[in-house]
Amino acid sequence: MLRVVTAGFIMLILGSPIAAQEGKAFELGVDGMIAYRATTPSSTTVTLPVGRMRVGYFLSPNFSFEPSLSYNSSDGNGAHSSRTIIGVAIVPQFGTLGSAKVYARPFVEYNFVTSTFENQRLTSQSSSVGAGIGMRVPLATRLMWRLEAAYATSSGESQFMGLVGLSFFPN
Fold it and tell me: pTM for this structure?
């Protein structure tokens, strides 16, 4: 399953007609995250330094479409769990704060979870919607920090997130 998702993500990046159009820029990025699940039982998750990969396709200088992919796996005490998250977002930039570019990021994510314990395999799928607000802060000519605060909800669960990312602009 992970191979299919990864192959699809790479094909989306390389085969996009938007990326092929002359003069359209795109952004390659990775994000680390600290997330707090506010519903009972509450939990805190830390995925640093990299928890998610993303590609932003700029449809105009201040508006981009952004697919993302995250994969986490854990083993312990005879149990195994993996989570794959595929997301899409639109990212309008709506202002500047000094040299930083301020943006919003409404998003939808699809979660695929597989757990194995005592030779029993459980799978689940869910979706979540959310929004974030953040800024891209210049670091070098084609490199920017990306700092964001976000909120997501899924089937009665609420999650608050702080994301720290690095964005590279190849063209």
Answer: 0.79
Exposed, middle or buried: residue 31 (CB in 10 Å: 0-12, 13-18, 19+)?
Answer: buried
| Tokens 């210049």 found at | 138
Q: Name the domain count of the chain.
A: 1
Residue 9 maps to a domain: no
Is 5 among the domain residues?
A: no
Contact 27, 64 (CB under 8 A): yes
Q: Please choose, from the candidates 30, 7, 2, 37, the residue with its C-alpha nearest in 3D space to the C-alpha of residue 145.
A: 30
Q: Give the whole-angstrom CA distance, residue 45 versus residue 34.
A: 6
The first and second tokens of residue 57, run together, are 């396709």
Going by the DSSP 8-state scheme, the letter that residue 35 receives in this structure is E
Identify the CATH number of the domain in which residue 119 sits: 2.40.160.20
In a domain, 2, yes or no: no
The residue range of the domain holding 118 is 25-168
In a domain, 17, yes or no: no
* pLDDT, tens digit, 9 for 90 and up, residues 28-80: 999 999 989 888 788 888 888 888 999 999 998 889 999 999 998 888 888 88
Question: Under 8 Å CB-to-CB from 3, ≥6 apart: which residues?
Answer: none
For the stretch 103-157, pLDDT in tens is 999 999 999 999 998 888 999 999 999 999 999 999 998 899 999 999 999 887 8
